[in-house]
Amino acid sequence: MPNDIRIDRLIAQHFLRPGDVVIDGGAHDGSTAAMFIDEGASRVLAFEPVAELRQSIALYFDSYRLKLPNVDVWPVALSNRRGQALLRLSTAHDEGSTVNPVMIDLFPDVYGEYTGRMVSTMPLDDLVGMVCPDYIKLDVEGAEAWVLRGAQQLYAGEHPPRVTVCEIYPPVREEGLALLREYHKRLARVFLDWNDDLAFELPGIGVYDDLPPCPPMFVGWNE
What we know:
This protein is 29% helix and 27% strand. By secondary structure, it is α/β, with parallel strands linked by helices. The strands form two sheets. An eight-stranded mixed sheet has the order 3-2-1-8-9-12-10-11, with helices on both faces. Strands 4-7-5-6 form a four-stranded mixed sheet, with no helix packed on it. A hairpin with a 6-residue loop joins strand 5 (83-90) and strand 6. The radius of gyration is 17 Å and the shape is globular. The two termini are 29 Å apart. The relative contact order is 0.16.
């Protein structure tokens, strides 16, 4: 597996349970979906609106001789509503695609030049009555708060997701963290420390002033 999903794997090893059903929001090339299966998930629903990346998912599974039946690929962007949205795709960075225009100003090196295409969107609440996910991973480039807002029924159900992992940048962080606190009993920032091990920053328990370079990843969970 590629090294760039190391933190996703370490988080999964800490929180994922055998047989869990996983939502992979922002599945990219399928490497995280494959990792979840490898770590014991029984099923992964992989959401990826970019057609070229959906083709890469199939190639990725073939290259690692993994079976695809456990992974359902959904050709939509997760959001807070069902409809259409303009997806901006960076022409300079293969992981740059967003439906939230504030990300363009936040990452000018990534979105200095981009193309746009319309994609279908759906809220996670559309899954109510169809599937009960245990573990949700969201890396949707600035749409995390929208996705969480569109999952209120899912989290209020009899079998709410036990774990939610999000990469949340400042423009949507306040709302995103507020929703994670509403949906889960515990919340922490997670990162790789200077020894490349998984570390947690818990509110009111210890603040790391000298964090290694790392994305702003947060996990909410219920014990």
